Fold these 3 entries.
Entry 1:
Amino acid sequence: MTYSSLSELRPLRLDTVAAIVGLVLALVLFPLRFLASQIYIQTVPIVLGTACALYLLSLYQRDDARAVPTLPSPVTMALPGIVFAGLAALVMLTVVQGARTPLFFGAASVVGTLVVAQIVFASDRDLHPGLLLLQIVCFAVVFRFTALYATPGYIGIDIWTHRELVESILTEESLSAISHDKHYGSPFYHLLVAASSLLYDVPIRAALYLSVGLVMPLSVLLVYATTNLLVTQRWAVLATALYAFASHVVRWGTHHIPTSLGLVFFLAMLYALLRVMRIEYSIRDFSLLLLLSVAVILTHQVSTFIMLVLLLAAFIAQVVFVVGPFGLTRLDTSVFRTKKPVNLVGLVVFNLGLTIFVWSLTPYRQESFLATVLSYFTQTLKESAGFLNTAGESSSDGGEAGTETAQTLLDQIVPYVDVLGFLFLLGVTFVGCLYVVHRRRAEQSVFTLLLAAAFMLVFVLGLPMFGVRTFIPTRWFAFLYAPMAILGAIGLQTLRGNLSPSLATAVLLVVVLAYPGAMFLAPESNADDPVFSDHHERLAYDESELAAAESIAELTGSPQGDEIRPDQQLHTDHPYQTLFKRTGAYPSTTTATVPEGGRADHDYTVYRSAQSTDATYVTDPDENARIADLSRTQLCRPEQATVYTNGDVTMCTPSPAES
């Protein structure tokens, strides 16, 4: 192996300069880890520096005998059968154990590794994209539906609210049943589930899984179709696997809310958008793009805002190539076809105008949705925005704060395990971005992906660093993973083709062996039964906990919020308190306040055994949330009366003797 000189490889071309700037930026950002303990501040500079270094290394390596090892043909032929047998074993494990246990996730990691290994290391002769896509889709279905099968109710927090909204529509047989709610302006999800319930003649839960639930794992094929517009089938299949295995994608495949359906329409729109940039499109292609954008607007507000960010990225890419300030109009036709940039001004203006119109008519907290969001954003800028103001990061959709400073070795490791899969994907995405900024490879479609990923990363990682979380950054990850998966596949293709065989093999092996398992161990992939149950709350409930909520509702008569005195407010852990509030079982319910080592001082409390065994949240007297292992007497004091218990859940009220 030899290295060429800098002058020979034109070191001042855009991709080289970008890699050098990225390396310098990583070095500049590295000291921030000593000023803040936020996980991304500590890890992203290292990932950025590593990615830039690998790309620079790939530029200056010369090896005439480049040949990354491939799997023997008999092994490649046997692996699909092993994968399908592994998927059957995952189903059997769930049925026998009644839950997705750590053994399940360990086995799933092995199966996922076998799938990715086939994609990366199969020879061109043995590569069968159709069979690989079938394995990916089957894995996605099994991984998600085993969670749904093992969960008696629903997975997640918001889903209980949406279930009540769908039930209201079915009861009143009219959309006016939710006219008081912000989803009245974006009702497509609720109408779809209600229509499925009527069409299939099944309960809401089954209708949800037969509609949105089935669409979610199939939607990963849209990533394949999009990536295949840019690269060969091998890397399009790899992008599909990277996306299908991603933790936040799994999250919305099990927690079926409007975000899930909005994600599906977003993926379809991304495909339609890149399609019109890559082919000689007709009015039909552009009409499809317009129709999908309207579908996003009528499905979910956050998805709509993310879509507008994507369209903004596409518009800026258009301007760059029309104005040509960097001379990016000279394309290498062996990489991408030369094509005039698509004019997207009309599409951007239409979607922005329709969004403002719909949001202005959407009710939300006594005002329009648009006015409320702008008010929240202004208030955030005034009260909590500030550099490195990372306090108060949410641990869940419920908005509870994180745990206290970790003490044990496991406590210190878990946060890094939680984000490891994202960091792997981010690293190869950086490499893909560097590849596409080369003058001869730059064009509107790939620049749209690059700018979209960059803008989304600002909302996901940048603004929270300044204390701005108005845009709900946790909802953005699954959308961000689409351009990241595509660019990441391009990045891995680059490293595989340009690095020395030994180094390229090492990089690919790290991704193959670590990426699936890292994503599956992340809390978003196992919200129904967390792998690290002492560190992450379980966002699902067993039969006794669901029965207790129903029984307490019957016992109390499910009083309206204005019928409950402040001293009658019900207190329990988070997230269990959200079940009472969102189902209407006891609307005035909140998180219990329990001093460290002390007892709660509430009149009406609910204790469940999970508070003593798993991660559940309570607050301290300063209203800071923390994970606590509570004994029964800490929440239901001896002087209180027990008015309900089923062995696992107990409700306590003031004793009549104290009256």
Entry 2:
Amino acid sequence: MNSKAMDEFEALLKESFEIDTPEEGTVVKGKVIAIEAGQAIIDVGYKMEGRIDLKEFANPGEAPNINVGDTVEVYLDRVENARGEAQISREKARREEAWDRLEKAYASETRVDGAIFGRVKGGFTVDLGGAVAFLPGSQVDVRPVRDAGPLMGMKQPFQILKMDRRRGNIVVSRRAILEESRAEQRAEVIGNLTEGQTIDGVVKNITEYGAFVDLGGVDGLLHVTDMAWRRVNHPSEILAIGETIKVQVIKINKDTHRISLGMKQLQSDPWDAVEKLYALGTVHKGRVTNITDYGAFVELEAGVEGLVHVSEMSWTKKNVHPGKIVSTSQEVEVMVLEIDSTKRRVSLGLKQTQRNPWEVFAETHPIGTNIEGEVKNITEFGLFVGLDNDIDGMVHLSDLSWDQRGEDAIANYRKGDTVTASVTEVDVEKERISLSIKALGEDTFTDAVDGVKRGGIITVVVTAIEEGGVEVEYNGAKSFIRRSDLSRERNDQRPERFSVGDKIDVRVTNIDPKTRRMGLSIKAREIAEEKEAVEQYGSSDSGASLGDILGAALKGDRS
């Protein structure tokens, strides 16, 4: 063989080696020539064979899918090992193949299929057909998953969130797929819904303000105020989780995809017949549903509630909390006072179902009737006396005694004393009853001044001497003559010139039934006598002295 032929042979041989002998660290195709002892024997060319455990040909949770004659891709680690065989790996081949495929999917943001096969700290491991990815716990589902058991080994789509081939890191999400499909499903369901439509739904969650209802892939909010026409304190009173209910679509927000639902809208509105059933002034039975500082709410029927304002609760208990008069769930009789259908309000009265106690008192106790009662309170202007039906009557200071000043007379009474008094006035509208204790005794003053007239002269008896004048008595009625009225002459205006028991003629200047006093004056009597004497016996201009005139007058009286 010449040198030229030799060179050609070497070149062909070299080319043959380059073709038939694959490079280590690459993926090559091989043919399964036998399966034995749990391994597949694979011919990778150039009379090289290698062995791979059958489990490397199986997906997680599945049996190996490999048969004699199959062509498979394997990773060539080494051309020859200690046993003279090629060292090959299906798993590494799958990983290389998977990374190429996954990088393309990541770049195009397309989904990839995989299966969760293990649990690690903070999440799970996912087999993406040869490459292992990390699935964080927060990316498993749209809501926290307590038991991921049913998801293990199940082939399903994932979204790649992040990948780094050099470090061998891949992070995937199942939640992103669910949210996307959920959004599509929501859009489809919402697109098929119309406001006013009636639909079946399943109660998914209950809160204080309402319930979330699944309408087949999309949730709607059923607010507590739209559950029933009557007052609902908490949705759990009428709903249970998992219950299928019929609801009406009230409103759909196309932007936020929020759906408002109602149940009461599928029932007849009881307010349509309120004015007909509950005429003004009629009395009905109801149940107390709620008590506030300003009154109590009473349910007349399911969906129709009225308010008994605190001012309409009792005739007599004015400044008492409604909770002291009625209790929740109590059955009461109420009167319809006002109806406002526009505002859906009914004003009710509790006290109107009982007779006005002041009216009853006026009917049963005419003016002049004597009553007996306990002193409930003592004030600066009189006594309050307890009467029947929790009402009070008042004895004014001026009605306590004929003889004493009111301020003095009230000191004789104590709270809790039982007193007898006469009814003097009943004002039903103002809820006021006037009583008099002094009316039960004799009016000594009126008797005493009977027949006495202003300007008349009467004889009184001195009962006390004081610095400012003298106290006198006439027929048992006391009066007081001031110092300035004791005489016409200033020198004689001295109280001490009188003694207790003296009888004095005085002129009546005033009679005051209210203060029960007579105005008396010696000075006025003297002036009147002088005037009368002058008129009878001469003029003061004639030169005669007053002594002469009075002397003549006295002489005339004696003759």
Entry 3:
Amino acid sequence: MRITGTGHASMRIDTAAGSILCDPWVNPAYFASWFPFPDNSQLDWETLGNVDYLYVSHLHRDHFDAEHLKRFISKKATVLLPEYPTSQLEDELRDLGFTSFFRTRSDEVHELDGGLKVMIQALISPTDGPIGDSSLWVEHDGIRVLNQNDARPSDLTRFNELGHVHAHMLQFSGAIWYPMVYELPENAKTAFGKQKRERQFDRTWRYIDDLKADFVFPIAGPPCFLDDELWQFNDIHGDEGNIFPDQSVFLTEYAKVGGTNAVVQLPGSVTELSDGGRTQSTTHPTPVDEFFANKVAHLEEMRERKRPALEAEKASWRHPEVDVLGELKKRIEPLLEESIYLAKGVGGPVRFDLVSYDGEEIESIVVDFPGKQVRPYADEKVRYRFKTQRELIEHLIFIDEGDWVNSLFLSCRFSAARIGQYNEFVYAFFKCLSEERLQYAEGWYDEHEKSVDAEDIEFGDWTVQRRCPHLKADLSRFGIVEGNVLTCQLHGWKFDLPSGRCLTGVGHKIRATKNS
């Protein structure tokens, strides 16, 4: 089996029974804030895109690159389709010209032509990607690989059941806007960022230990930020709170926990797995250590080369003809009327401050969840406030974007302030700005709230429900108790055991009893 690194979470897997291209991403994403790093735009995509199968893990724009898929990927390729609750991924791929789809069933092994076996595990909670994320398991001639990309399953039991995995590809770096965009003192942001960075690595070590693969491939990050306004987010400034460590940092941190089996791929690196998957040899277009030693120079060269495209894209966002308040009322108020769980979960008004083109004026608009309306801000207290450029909201309206998480929020082109705990329902709602997504999310929360987790585990003096109330992670694997606080390391959620109260976000009470 041959694995060619094609950048970020993308790779091409070649076997004697066929080839699979995974998550090809080349063009800037999220309002041109994210770029693949190292740069992969100069690879021979005409050849790389001539494959038998295409796998797109989910609809995040650093995995689903519509422009690149349309231009370079063979439309003869059969799409390996995750079993998602909505048809959006298939619909968008069909719009790009793909016609052949193999609809997988989650957690079920499918045998394709020539003995090539695949399994896709689909995650389908409203907080998994844009209503879905997935991992791809591949086996041929006794060699097994797991492309976990940035999916976060509660455990890897299903993959272990299928036999020893030889190569494990997984995310290790950040892919979020927290804490950088929050209006906090710099020392607080650094402290929160350091906690986030440590949690990312800790989660990665747990997944690696779960699977115990022969070789570990750190993928799916980090992006780089080439806009001057976002340049500080690159991990080149000695900031211990930066949440975007690169592969060279991964190697250093992995060595601290005894890791010796990492394989870093640059775009164009080729790994051959042989001897039943127990041996690997990798060739690189340039030495890995040398590349990352010159990271700043690479970023600066890339910034200048990409600047014209970036400026052209920024110039396309303004739509002064759009009546922002009127259009938001038209789009969001019907969804507020239908929303029960999400609206209740948000529980109050959310304010958007829109900065004018010249930066002088601000129009404040409130999405009033209890009142079920969108209206001008009325000088009331709000728990969540976002501030961004008016043209970004104009563009979201102009393109009828149904997922602001997969556009505005991941762009980091905003600032935020909140009073109190993190509220996942705010972000869940703004990724569900369509009838189909909203109805699915409402149904999921309805079923989730009514389910009862009866199995318990022991944590010292405490008996606690086994599954985390947040997203059902197995606390026997991801739980840590310090004093009276239980932390689920999968997402960093904390619970006060005496009261059961969630200390991290709204809702999600845990069942816990002190042993006598």
